[in-house]
């Protein structure tokens, strides 16, 4: 797994996820494997917010089209690109796309900073990653403690119904 990997856009979908969240998904072929990019909640389908969600979907698509130098979302399909990840590990999320033709990049963080600054204020990508890893480690430590308690009480609590 690399942090920059060649791919081809197979489809682009502007949709209402779970009948509520306005999103855009870009589905990619990465040398035989497939991965989606996007899914960012661009708005909610609730009273007074529908138009903002639809507008943000259109803005997201327009910025992708500019990066790839195409005039429509349909023209994105078949475009060669590079997927960009922060870490070279299996199943890492894609954080951006680079057009193989124009060399321009669409980075989710830049889009969020521009249109959703309150969400971007949570911290740098590196700091957020540190926090997620620290939280994961704490959850794993808790799980180890729970498993140890179960192991310690196994003899006294276990009922072997097959022997009764």
Structure report:
- With 164 residues, the chain is of the alpha+beta class.
- Helices cover 39% and strands 29% of the residues.
- The chain contains 4 helices and 7 strands.
- The protein has helices spanning 50-68, 108-115, 117-120, 125-157, and strands at residues 4-17, 21-30, 33-38, 43-44, 80-85, 94-99, 105-107.
- Strands 1, 2, 3, 4, 5, 6 and 7 form a 7-stranded antiparallel β-sheet that branches.
- A hairpin with a 2-residue loop joins β2 and β3.
- The longest helix has 33 residues, at 125-157.
- It is elongated, with a radius of gyration of 22 Å.
- The mean pLDDT is 90.
Structural category is: alpha+beta
Poorly predicted segments = none
Rg measurement, Å: 22 Å
The biggest sheet, with number of strands, parallel, antiparallel or mixed sense and barrel status, is: 7 strands, antiparallel
Question: On the 0-100 scale, what is the average pLDDT?
Answer: 90
Measured between the Cα atoms of the first and last residue, the distance is 53 Å
Residue fraction in strands: 25-35%
Instruction: Give helix % range.
Output: 25-40%
- The count of β-strands is 7
Q: Name the overall outline.
A: elongated
Task: Give helix and strand order, one letter per element, not per position.
Answer: EEEEHEEEHHH
Tally of separate helices: 4
